Amino acid sequence: MSELLARAASGDRESAPVGYARVLGEGVDTSHGPILYLDDITVSFDGFRALNKLTLTIDVGELRCIIGPNGAGKTTMMDVITGKTRPDSGTAFFGQTIDLTRLSEPEIATAGIGRKFQKPTVFEPLSVFENLELAMKTDKRARHSLRAKLNSEARDRIAEMLARINLFDSAARLAGELSHGQKQWLEIGMLLMQEPQLLLLDEPVAGMTDHETAKTAELFVSLAGSHSLVVVEHDMDFVERLGGKVTVLHEGSVLAEGPLAEVQQDERVIEVYLGR
Ligand SMILES: Nc1ncnc2c1ncn2[C@@H]1O[C@H](COP(=O)(O)OP(=O)(O)OP(=O)(O)O)[C@@H](O)[C@H]1O
Q: 64 C-alpha vs ligand 1 centroid, how far in Å?
């Protein structure tokens, strides 16, 4: 356990720096502001600025798409949010109190930020049901003493998730037998079983059929409101279906932001991305 976590766990809230509300079990505080706040973030690799004074705010319950040309900094931005990459300078907050630049990757995941990478990673030899069961967030001590009750609750939660991710009829199938799109849904379901408040999704519909893409858009729209979502995507039809605000990244900064129809008309966006 890190020193800071140890301090938080010992109840030393006064001296614990900002950033430990969730670790202390109090949840992310969004009472007066956005769920994600990035301000003036710069990340350099050997002098090259992958992020250049990036400022971005995501509201609670928002569904935001991030688009932009290759090398614009989209992945680096996700890496900063999840603690994989430390910014050289700038501010990154989850809610009002959780300073992401001071937490490790596991601490950030525990705080309520879930990330889905482009390639699906499910446990192929296990069934769809077992994959969701494994991913479920449970209190092991409580499960020991209240086994029967929690088991039925757990089954209900898994059944709800199966319906939500369009896999209700595939519960007993091995994950390895699913189509690419179904594997992606299963992994999204596994992420949701962890009850994240903010979901980061990297090109979730790459390689999906048109039907799977449309179903995925429906799923994300249904998650917005109760979750906040940041979706990096190149598929403009999908982005249009999601219907949220779009941020265009270019050379590590925000080039444009607004409804898709608006950014599509922006000459600078056409020049660097859409018009190619
Ligand atoms: N670890 C690293 N070392 C050096 N350069 C890096 C590293 N990670 C990213 N870069 C560079 O930073 C820039 C931004 O990369 P990033 O992967 O964030 O872009 P992206 O918008 O996600 O692109 P894509 O759409 O191709 O995934 C690129 O020029 C990339 O080569």
A: 20
Q: Say whether pTM exceeds 0.80.
A: yes
Q: Is the CB of 132 under 6 A from ligand 1?
A: no
CB distance 85 to ligand 1 below 6 Å: no
pLDDT tens-digit series, residues 111-170: 999 999 888 889 999 999 999 999 986 655 545 554 555 578 888 999 999 999 999 999
* Residues with Cβ within 8 Å of residue 75, at least 6 apart in sequence: 202, 232
User: Ligand 1 pocket: which of 38, 44, 45 to mutate (most atoms <8 Å of CB)?
Assistant: 45
CA of 52 to the centre of ligand 1 (A): 12
Going from N- to C-terminal start, the domains of the chain cover 3-122+178-274, 125-177
Fold of 3-122+178-274: Rossmann fold (3.40.50)
ipTM of the complex: 0.94
In the chain the first and final C-alpha atoms are separated, in Å, by 49
The answer to whether the CB of 71 is under 6 A from ligand 1 is yes
For residues 17 and 107, what is the distance between their CA atoms, to the nearest angstrom? Answer: 15
Beta bridge partners of 249: 254
